[in-house]
């Protein structure tokens, strides 16, 4: 077991801080780790409805008011801007960095590859370089870099559950290729500059104020408009859906345990480097997921009791870049941190439906 570090009184730099996972992480840090100094960056791009990002930012500011000993600094800008990233590192000297900023989404990477190279490769490289130079002149720099990878690195892995020991050299989308590249780049930096880094392969994260580009959110929008939802691979898709609070809890555990710095027999550092899956370890059939979503949308009064779902559902073939199943082997996370997601799909979708009702004032 790695030595735990306390997050209280630390300066934590979160990129993608008003993103879905990032904003929930910032809220959780303020709620549970005060006093804590959080610096967040986000370019607030319009890949999806910016008003959701603004809502999340307002939630963070509201939460901050309850923690007068903590601080929250928000920088609107891009991690691809090297000068800006260096300036933030010089000014705030973060102890822990959590890189969640990225161009997400598998399908969008087919039509908009540039965004992925900029945020996921150039941006991540800037973060790595800044972590490296945080140690210059014998200054105690970044203690731990935690960064988002993705279950999409498993591509069309036949073996389930997906284990971090599986070979993941055959990405089926540019998005997946950038995430796998992040793991490779982090490994090189961990080895060369002894930077403790942990990559987290997230599995289909959902919850309130989630991403409108994800299926459950898109389905809800369409059903509300009376449109037909398309269920890919004729519903024979399985996803290891993970509730956002579980993800954030997992990230928080991992942040506290940087991989240990050790030298090998050659006197050179053994890279302080780890990669974990964070998923539910319980894949759900897409059709079952949709059924629970429907029930919860009715319960939250987003949709009327007599909604005719059957006439708004279309079963269609698989989309390019998609995979039929995602299923996380989460044994290492449980072994090292005693952590396992605990939110049921029904509870998670209930909270999503209630948030949706309120946010869109349905
Ligand atoms: N949500 C999931 O199911 C899931 C699954 C696997 C991996 N991930 C990864 O987790 C991380 C967070 O995902 P999320 O679901 O919160 O997505 P998100 O899109 O809500 O959050 C990412 C945030 O990063 C910001 N951003 C994008 N490019 C940027 C740049 N160049 N500079 C600064 N900010 C930038 C966006 O504005 C956004 O607010 C991402 O790295 C994503 O690839 C998410």
UniProtKB/TrEMBL annotation:
Domain NAD-dependent epimerase/dehydratase as annotated: residue spans: 12-279
Domain of life assignment: Bacteria
Xref: Pfam families: Epimerase
Gene3D superfamilies with a match to the protein in the record: NAD(P)-binding Rossmann-like Domain, UDP-galactose 4-epimerase, domain 1
Record keywords: NAD
Official protein name in the record: NAD-dependent epimerase/dehydratase family protein
Source organism (scientific name): Blautia parvula
